[in-house]
Design goal:
Layout (H helix, E strand, L loop, with lengths): L1 E15 L5 E15 L3 E5 L6 H9 L6 E9 L2 E2 L2 H7 L4 E4 L12 H8 L5 H11 L16 H14 L4 E5 L7 H16 L3 E6 L2 H7 L2 E6 L2 E7 L13 H8 L34 H5 L5 E3 L2 E3 L6
Parallel strand pairs: 3-8, 3-9, 6-7, 7-8
Antiparallel strand pairs: 1-2, 1-4, 4-5, 9-10, 10-12, 11-12
Helix pairs in contact: 3-4, 3-5, 4-5, 6-7
The chain binds adenosine-5'-diphosphate, iron/sulfur cluster and magnesium ion.
Length: 307
């Protein structure tokens, strides 16, 4: 069963360029993604591709001036603002990208215990502190007394003790040492194996491939491909979209070939396929029409010429 289904999500922000001029910046365009119970879907894509906005849209914590369209469902029912409010922090849990999400006025131990189910909160908090190598005395500290790495581990701890049905981890590991990263990834896999649906946002494809079932590749605010993780192999022959293939080949352990050009800014999106200006196989149709999402070989792709 799909725990979460996002269809044709679009998000834009109005910007004022001068006193009288207003422009609309489309930051997410017709984005589709779904996550089943027990599944880890990793979202990979360059900075600014819309990964955090997707997380915030699901949780209902977008800025008030965001214009949102499309549909989002949770367990088959529309994800309304009221439902998001009831599920947030309970059935749906976030490991935020920024450590500023910690409550500055509450001791860390209490923050972690509050997100766990009541009867086993103290036990779970102690166990998770051990697991993430947080010294026992951290319990009594306030966020400002923690190093950046400790604060990040505390955020992870808060989300994993919740045993939420949907866990959204937004770049949970930067700055952590490799043993803790390994521990965090293993922990997310265990939670999925126990039935949680997990959205892992990262720009580290290699880390994602260690635990994810599917990889959703984001580009300029949309999903260009959703592929089984096993398709990321060899020279990328199994991948469907030219950007996913290029991203894969750009990794140092592969061919290390950079992708010329840059992701377009939301104020300058091209009229046709968003990847056309950088695509080596773009045709005239690509430059004038936007490809829709379609199923290809057990995955999804947004490209006219994918097979
Ligand atoms: N509150 C906001 N107002 C206007 N633009 C925003 C806002 N938040 C994000 N954006 C823009 O939306 C795009 C996607 O942002 P984000 O989801 O944070 O990217 P990612 O997490 O993939 O790095 C970026 O171009 C960013 O500048
Ligand atoms: S639709 Fe055309 S431009 Fe876009 S990725 Fe496919 S081939 Fe390239
Ligand atoms: Mg982000």
């Amino acid at each position: 069963m799909a725990i979460v289904e996002v269809e044709n999500l679009s998000i834009s922000f109005k910007r004022y360029t001068s006193r009288f001029k207003q422009v609309n910046h489309q930051v997410i365009s017709n984005l589709n993604v779904s996550i089943e119970a027990g599944e880890i879907v990793a979202v990979v894509g360059a900075s600014g591709s819309g990964k955090s906005l997707l997380a915030h849209a699901l949780l209902g914590i977008l800025p008030i001036h965001a214009n949102v369209s499309g549909t989002m469902t949770y367990k088959g029912e529309p994800l309304t603002a009221k439902r998001q409010g009831m599920l947030r922090g309970k059935e749906m849990s976030l490991v935020p990208q920024s450590v500023h999400f910690l409550d500055p006025l509450m001791k860390i131990g209490k923050q972690v215990r509050q997100s766990a189910k009541h009867h086993k909160a103290a036990f779970l908090q102690k166990k998770v502190f051990e697991r993430y190598r947080l010294p026992v005395k951290t319990e009594k500290l306030y966020p400002f007394q923690l190093s950046g790495g400790m604060a990040r581990r505390a955020l992870l701890a808060t989300a994993v003790v919740s045993e939420a049905e949907l866990i959204i981890a937004d770049e949970p590991t930067p700055g952590l040492d490799s043993a803790v990263i390994e521990e965090a990834l293993t922990n997310l896999r265990e939670l999925a194996d126990n039935g949680s649906a997990i959205l892992l946002i990262t720009h580290d494809i290699e880390a994602a491939l260690k635990i994810a079932d599917k990889i959703a590749v984001f580009y300029a605010g949309t999903t260009v491909e959703v592929a089984p993780a096993v398709d990321f192999t060899g020279k990328g022959e199994m991948l469907r979209h030219p950007y996913s293939k290029a991203l894969w080949r750009a990794l140092p352990q592969n061919e290390f070939i950079p992708i010329p050009g840059a992701q377009p800014h939301p104020s300058e999106l091209p009229p046709g396929c968003l990847f056309a200006p950088r695509c080596t196989i773009a045709t005239s149709k690509c430059r004038h029409e936007q490809p829709t999402n379609r199923a290809v070989r057990n995955g999804m792709v947004r490209c006219f010429h994918a097979t």
